[in-house]
Design the sequence.
């Protein structure tokens, strides 16, 4: 006889019938009736009306019946709080029952009855159960404290239960210890300030002993708790690691991952010169590989975590093969494996990886195939030696003519062109053949970019672009913007044949479009072309910065935080808990412990093969960094160059254009449209569209200021719950500012903005609070100029010009980091006396001199001089030696560091040689970058 | 920390049974699960962790059921998935099969188990042998005062009860090695690994203390026995009865075993072995007319050994018809529901080679959607043989009553994920 019969009573007056049966004298009938009630409850019927009758059955010596009544209570007590009091007596009695199973059942259930009135009656029974002789009851009571705390925290504290719970950590029974740890961790999590888990070496020792004896789940509770402990020094960290390492051999994947978390965290404190460090690193890899033999869901969690771990520590590099995709892997496992394959790709294994990727690219699962094709492109960008093979593989794939394969391939080839200019353009012809089959915006935009960029090599570039123009208004914004830029590029390269085309696109963009981005860009090009085509050429056809190799690396501070959350949802989402857990805004962010026992502050990979992810692995943010003052006398290693600021062709914002000589000479022979024909359809304020633009630029143009880079996206909306922040830095008449654009891409209104900087190398700090006057409505942007000063606290960063920023709004706190160009720190009084210059130059030792090449700069010495002066780099003397111009220059940083420069310019050679001398040679690298930026923009 | 509530849903997403462990996730939230799942499936972004608002669903599918844990916190995801699989294991031991019907038929005991398996989101006792001691199918009628918690529930040895008696004390040791192999269409080995497990069937009285001796290379090196005939085990994983710290110290595998059947340990080997059964295939597709298949299977192990129950599944397009097959050994049949041609050979001795030829018709009108290129999958068993050469050197059994017990050892090699890609 099965239980399913209980589900079948559906007659009229069922409740009435049940009532009668519940009050029956026959025990068996009573039990049957309760089962029917529970069955009804299970299928979602409301049987709360039977509350008093069911509670009456509570006093029974039948354990099964008792459990059913308890189950009923847990479900309905909340809806019948007054009647729930009826149950209290029985609970109190059951907590004294001679049978420990009943005592435990009672204490377990009463914690689940979330009725305030009852809780105070339960304190006495709970107190007894916490001291029960039977460990089964004690371990249940321990959890009950956490339950009660969740309902009424104050009561639990007043009753002193927390202290009793802490005492249970020293219980003789490991299960009790484990549950006490779990309960305390749970309480501590919701009350971060309570300092409940003030772990010390003694309690840690107890936990480590219990670790060997308790169940697999208990081991996880203990390991997760250990991960929150901060060892006092590297020796303690090592001894904990030694005792945790055996857990890596546990059959339960969750135990393994929690152990990995503890090890990854405490390793941070160990010196890398230590033999033990290497041993530990080696021990981490095999268990991670074995996790891939677990059930697919566990594999998925493991893969998401491995993705983090390999960004932090350079392990698993020889285990590439285990990440190869199997035919019957679920798609979510396949995609994660692909990601890790790219992370581990290096020159040594690239052949194998490419062969696999090619195999995947011919599968049938569209999402997987797309990702595989992208992966080939990423390999090309990451491992230079493989670029050629990647390109030929992509061409093979294009030949398959499978529509989505072709589109993905074109998107990645565009990136390959960006990374290796002037190398693979011979394939353009093949790409052009597939123009008609492209129907996805990203692919169309990529193709248009290619046509525009290489217009001079494509005979029928005008025809190709014209073909897109027909359906201009049906295209997505991405495609429209690209098309506009591409046609302008084409015009600048082949002005004679394409005048009509460019006029057409400009009028489409400015007059017929509702999109402000498109209109603005249209106007800017228009004005630029009509006033100074030479400047236009310099701007539009400027050399693009190289794209970085790993675009999807997790930001180092976030990575460190996520490492502290290995195994949890945060590690699966790759988001900090504050991003997805309600009410966790005030919670302290976890971070890795500072490294002790060695002077290095940054984790660089053990071996750094060229092209491997190691080469540009982001460094750990030093938490105990040296002050900048130390720069002057400490002999630090050579500075590591940071990744270039990401600027892309698409984000060619207005700022640089306006900053340039937009109002300058009017030598342009090209005047497509006088302002009188400007659009009038948009209403009054825009009626004088171009005129407004004039006014605006007039204002900006007259200000003297150093070069301002275009704004780039610092915080993508995806990472910040819809808040997008882009910005740049500027220096104008002696004041530094951070120019921000906040865009609300979420659906709710944002308000209460605030900003804060982490300590940084030059003490940059906001000079005023972030002023956003009105709440930011969805889809709205606001431009803000945040004045900065350099009187904030100083800590040396890696790279030197790294700035970590926290922005708060009513939704959450977001973190990002950005690199500021050093020239914003060049002060106005940076001109040194001639004599002084000579003396200082001699005085600074030769080993402090660094030489750089500035390539492809066609300016002459005077132009260079004046351009640099705009950014407070002052030319002190100019000499002509054997036909080459030598410029002697000086600049001073906000913190008083002087930098002396010698710039050699040969008339026939577009490459300049820059020699820098400075007492703090660490900055030279960044000064050079500033030179580059200023001279090339 | 872990789960706020646990749901067992049918395929349509309707809750069959649920248990709320914490109050933070409302009971109605589960109604969003199916919608999110279907939407993500549609988008091709289905993952084992889904979310709706602030509620996160961690789910697995078993037979015709979804098991879903919910949480609003940053829960330990790996713990939750491990736990869900453990729940499946426990239910399977209780009801033989876990599916919709068995959940309905046993809802009372399911509730009881859910109450015992987890408390306030923390997994508790999940060992089904121990649970069966105090949660029974017949409805436990405990007399007042007479009840007792099995001490095993909270003992340090939480996996074995006291007072077990057998007339004949025996241990059966099965050393099973599964070979995972992935061969590319061109015939080169892409991936080969061996996953070994040692399973025990324990029929021993009392609280025996066992020690297992293997020809473990690290142990041999530790004890100065040299590398001869030893094997290098990569990443050994143990059942929780094994004292991990002891193994970490001196490689001793010491434990008090659970009663009956359990997996003592598993290990992994990455040694490149040549494919035990070499498969070469020529699959020629003449669109709109026919498909020709030629498969050669060769046993590449020593002559004394024999591979049993060899099954070679060759993929064929779903629209293939009228199969004609010839084999030099065994039999082949077309299994249209799996879209494979299944060639079975009862026994394939080492060094022997067999052929299969098949011919299929293909319709003149080609169907629209493209099909994947599934690999050829092979299954087999080779008894009395291990790829790694692992050996059980001894099994010491010590119990305070001092009885004599006999260990029996059996070796077997099986196919794991054994696949050959087709072009």
Sequence:
């Amino acid at each position: 006889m099965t239980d399913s019969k209980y589900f079948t009573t559906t007659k009229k007056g069922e409740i009435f019938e049940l009532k009668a049966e519940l009050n029956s004298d026959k025990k068996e009938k009573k039990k049957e009736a309760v089962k029917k009630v529970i069955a009804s409850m299970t299928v979602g019927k409301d049987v709360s009306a039977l509350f008093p009758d069911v509670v009456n059955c509570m006093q029974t010596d039948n354990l099964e019946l008792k459990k059913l009544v308890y189950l009923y209570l847990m479900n309905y007590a909340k809806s019948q709080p007054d009647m729930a009091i009826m149950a209290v007596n029985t609970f109190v009695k059951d907590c004294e029952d001679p049978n420990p199973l009943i005592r435990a059942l009672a204490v377990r259930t009463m914690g689940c009855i979330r009725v305030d009135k009852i809780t105070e009656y339960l304190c006495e029974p709970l107190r007894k159960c916490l001291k029960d002789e039977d460990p089964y009851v004690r371990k249940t009571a321990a959890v009950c404290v956490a339950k009660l705390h969740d309902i009424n925290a104050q009561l639990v504290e007043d009753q002193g239960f927390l202290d009793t719970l802490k005492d249970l950590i020293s219980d003789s029974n490991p299960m009790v210890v484990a549950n006490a740890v779990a309960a305390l961790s749970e309480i501590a999590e919701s009350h971060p300030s309570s300092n409940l888990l003030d772990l010390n070496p003694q309690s840690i020792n107890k936990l480590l002993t219990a670790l060997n004896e308790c169940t697999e789940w208990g081991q996880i509770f203990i390991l997760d708790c250990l991960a929150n402990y901060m060892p006092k020094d590297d020796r303690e960290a090592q001894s904990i690691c030694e005792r945790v390492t055996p857990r890596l051999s546990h059959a339960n994947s969750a135990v393994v991952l929690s152990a990995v978390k503890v090890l990854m965290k405490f390793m941070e404190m160990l010196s890398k010169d230590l033999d033990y460090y290497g041993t530990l690193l080696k021990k981490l890899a095999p268990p991670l590989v074995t996790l891939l033999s677990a059930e697919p869901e566990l594999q998925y969690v493991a893969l998401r975590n491995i993705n983090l771990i390999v960004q932090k520590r350079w392990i698993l590099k020889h285990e590439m093969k285990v990440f190869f995709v199997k035919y019957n892997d679920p798609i979510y496992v396949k995609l994660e494996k692909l990601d890790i394959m790219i992370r581990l790709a290096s020159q040594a294994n690239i052949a194998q990886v490419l062969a696999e990727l090619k195999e995947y690219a011919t599968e049938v699962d569209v999402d997987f195939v797309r990702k595989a094709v992208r992966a080939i492109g990423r390999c090309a960008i990451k491992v230079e030696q493989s670029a050629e093979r990647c390109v030929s593989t992509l061409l093979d794939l294009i030949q398959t003519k499978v529509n989505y394969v072709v589109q993905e391939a074109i998107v990645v080839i565009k990136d390959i062109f960006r990374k290796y200019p002037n190398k693979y353009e011979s394939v353009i012809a093949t790409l052009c053949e597939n123009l008609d089959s492209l129907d996805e915006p990203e692919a169309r935009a990529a193709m248009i970019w290619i046509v525009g960029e290489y217009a001079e090599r494509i005979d029928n570039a005008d025809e190709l672009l014209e073909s897109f123009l027909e359906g201009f208004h049906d295209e997505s914004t991405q495609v429209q913007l690209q098309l506009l830029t591409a046609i302008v590029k084409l015009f600048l390269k082949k002005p004679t044949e394409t005048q009509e085309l460019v006029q057409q696109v400009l009028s489409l963009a400015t007059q017929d479009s509702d999109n402000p981005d498109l209109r603005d860009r249209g106007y800017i090009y228009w004005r630029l072309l009509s006033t100074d085509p030479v400047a236009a050429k310099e701007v539009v056809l400027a050399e693009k910065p190289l794209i970085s190799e790993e675009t999807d690396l997790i930001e180092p501070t976030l990575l460190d935080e996520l490492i502290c959350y290995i195994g949890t949802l945060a590690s699966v989402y790759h988001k900090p808990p504050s991003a997805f857990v309600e009410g966790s805004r005030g919670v302290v962010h976890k971070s890795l412990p500072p490294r002790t026992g060695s002077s290095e502050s940054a984790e660089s990979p053990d071996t750094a093969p060229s092209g491997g992810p190691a080469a540009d692995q982001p460094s750990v943010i030093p938490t105990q960094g040296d002050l900048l003052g130390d720069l002057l006398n400490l002999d630090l290693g050579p500075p590591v160059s940071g990744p270039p600021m990401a600027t892309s062709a698409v984000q060619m914002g207005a700022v640089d254009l306006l900053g340039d000589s937009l109002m300058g000479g009017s030598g342009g022979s090209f005047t497509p449209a006088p302002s009188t024909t400007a659009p009038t359809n948009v209403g009054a304020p825009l009626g004088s569209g171009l005129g407004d633009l004039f006014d605006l630029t007039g204002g900006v143009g007259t200000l003297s200021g150093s070069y301002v880079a275009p704004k780039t996206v610092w915080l993508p909306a995806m990472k910040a719950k819809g808040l997008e922040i882009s910005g740049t830095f500027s220096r104008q008449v002696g004041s530094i500012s951070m120019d921000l654009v906040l865009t609300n891409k979420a659906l709710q209104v944002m308000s209460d903005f605030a900003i804060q900087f982490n300590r940084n190398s030059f003490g940059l700090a906001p000079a005023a609070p972030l002023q956003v006057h009105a709440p930011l409505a969805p889809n709205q942007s606001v431009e803000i100029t945040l004045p900065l000063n350099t009187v904030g606290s100083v800590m040396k960063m890696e790279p030197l010009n790294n700035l970590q920023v926290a922005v708060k709004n009513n939704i959450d706190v977001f973190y990002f980091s950005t690199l500021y160009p050093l020239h914003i720190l060049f002060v106005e009084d940076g001109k040194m006396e001639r004599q002084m210059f000579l003396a200082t130059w001699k005085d600074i030792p030769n080993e402090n001199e660094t030489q750089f090449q500035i390539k492809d700069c066609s300016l002459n010495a005077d132009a260079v001089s004046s351009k640099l002066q705009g950014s407070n780099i002052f030319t002190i003397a100019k000499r002509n030696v054997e036909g080459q111009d030598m410029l002697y220059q000086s600049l001073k940083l906000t913190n008083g560091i002087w930098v002396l420069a010698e710039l050699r310019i040969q008339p026939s050679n577009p490459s300049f040689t820059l020699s820098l001398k400075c007492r703090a040679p660490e900055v030279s690298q960044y000064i050079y970058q500033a030179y580059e930026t200023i001279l090339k923009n | 920390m872990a789960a706020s509530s646990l749901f067992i849903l049918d395929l349509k997403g309707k809750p069959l049974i649920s248990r709320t462990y914490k109050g933070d996730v409302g009971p109605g939230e589960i109604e969003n699960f199916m919608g999110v799942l279907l939407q993500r499936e549609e988008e091709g972004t289905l993952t084992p962790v889904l979310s709706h608002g602030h509620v996160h669903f961690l789910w697995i599918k078993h037979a015709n059921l979804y098991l879903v844990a919910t949480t609003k916190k940053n829960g330990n995801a790996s713990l939750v998935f491990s736990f869900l699989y453990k729940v499946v294991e426990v239910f399977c031991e209780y009801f033989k099969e876990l599916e919709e019907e068995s959940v309905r038929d046993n809802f009372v005991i399911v509730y009881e188990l859910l109450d015992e398996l987890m408390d306030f989101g923390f997994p508790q006792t999940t060992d089904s042998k121990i649970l069966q001691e105090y949660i029974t199918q017949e409805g436990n009628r405990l007399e007042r005062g007479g009840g007792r918690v099995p001490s095993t529930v909270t003992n340090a040895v939480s996996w074995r009860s006291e007072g077990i008696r057998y007339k004949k004390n025996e241990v059966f040791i099965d050393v099973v090695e599964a070979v995972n192999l992935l061969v590319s269409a061109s015939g080169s080995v892409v991936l080969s690994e061996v996953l070994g497990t040692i399973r025990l069937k324990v029929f021993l009285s009392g609280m025996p203390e066992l020690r297992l001796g293997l020809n473990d290379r690290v142990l041999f090196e530790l004890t100065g026995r040299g590398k001869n005939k030893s094997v290098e085990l990569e990443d050994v994983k143990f059942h929780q009865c094994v004292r991990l710290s002891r193994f970490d110290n001196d490689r001793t595998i010491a434990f008090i075993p659970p009663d009956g059947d359990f997996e003592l340990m598993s290990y992994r080997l990455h040694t490149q072995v040549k494919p035990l059964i070499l498969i070469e295939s020529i699959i020629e597709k003449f669109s709109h007319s026919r498909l020709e298949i030629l498969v050669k299977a060769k046993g590449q192990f020593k002559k004394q050994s024999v591979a049993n129950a060899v099954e070679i599944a060759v993929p064929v397009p779903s629209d293939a018809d009228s199969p004609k097959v010839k084999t030099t050994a065994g039999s082949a049949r077309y299994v249209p529901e799996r879209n494979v041609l299944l060639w079975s050979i009862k026994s394939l001795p080492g060094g022997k080679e067999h052929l299969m030829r098949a011919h299929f018709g293909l319709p003149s009108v080609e169907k629209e959607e493209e099909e994947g290129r599934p690999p050829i999958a092979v299954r087999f068993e080779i008894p009395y043989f291990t790829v790694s050469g692992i050996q059980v050197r001894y099994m010491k059994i010590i119990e305070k009553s001092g009885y004599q017990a006999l260990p029996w050892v059996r070796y077997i090699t099986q196919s794991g994920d054994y696949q050959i890609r087709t072009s």
Observations:
- Chain B touches chain A through 101 residues (CB under 8 Å).
- Chain B has a mean pLDDT of 89.
- The longest strand of chain B covers residues 189-203.
